[in-house]
Write the structure tokens for this entry.
Amino acid sequence: MVQHLRSVGVPEDRVILITPPPLCEAAWEKACVVQGCKLNRLNSIVGEYASACLHVARDCRTDVLDLWTLMQTDGQDFSSYLSDGLHLSPKGNKFLFSHLWPLMEKKVSSLPLLLPYWRDVAEAKPELSLLGDGDH
């Protein structure tokens, strides 16, 4: 994935890898039973994927957000971060955002603004603000 991004001109310093979140096996097992199957994932295996992601980030010199570890810090109950034991809940998405935004902000803060600030766009004729002389 990182090699593909490189091949299309995206530098490593613009990439952020994110490990999978931990798996709440009890909740995921309930979701599996509802679908007529057995538990098909283990948190320990998800941890191996997270570790592989960390190694790739190190080898490729990219930033990484280690959700798997962050959500389990100090033995905290991470089940509320997951809607079904596997996928992020709204609270999990907020958790992800709160940790991802500082990394993203660091990467984009030095980028130039290519478009006018939204308040500077003329409501009646926005094309003048976007394509015109810039006085609107």
Q: What stands out?
A: The helical segments are 2-7, 25-34, 43-60, 67-70, 90-108, 126-131. The beta strands are 16-18, 63-65. The chain is about 45% helix and 5% strand.
